[in-house]
Write a structure and sequence with these properties.
Blueprint lengths: L4 H13 L9 E8 L2 E8 L10 E11 L4 E7 L5 E3 L8 H10 L8
Antiparallel strand pairs: 1-2, 2-3, 3-4, 4-5
Length: about 110
């Protein structure tokens, strides 16, 4: 079972609301869904004239467990491996998004 359209809508609304409109030519926050997981990605405009592609940095991943009916939050290490963020209990998609914003460890947004 893939992520519900309603949860994807919430995640996309969260991403869209993270960056003020006046900065969208420099930065944006996007999400990418695959199966039961959604990755939140920070995208930055090319910083040098020789670059043409936007850079992408994975910020967080939330995964849906259809058996338990809840979401879990993951952080990415410097080697690209995802790890369970065990400072927040599994819960709703809204709780996972709030946990990303409330993170006092600065593991998501640095």
């Amino acid at each position: 079972m893939a992520v519900s359209e309603f949860d994807l809508f919430k995640i996309n609304r969260y991403c869209t609301g993270k960056v003020p409109a006046r900065f969208l030519d420099e930065m944006r926050i996007e999400s990418s869904a695959r199966g039961n997981s959604v990755t939140i990605v920070e995208c930055r405009a090319p910083w040098h004239e020789s670059l043409t592609e936007w850079s992408r940095h994975n910020v967080a991943q939330i995964r849906y467990d259809p058996v338990a009916g809840n979401w879990s939050l993951y952080w990415r290490d410097r080697n690209g491996r995802w790890h369970l963020f065990d400072l927040v209990e599994p819960g709703t998609v809204d709780q996972m998004l709030a946990a990303i914003d409330e993170d006092t460890t600065a593991i998501f947004w640095g």
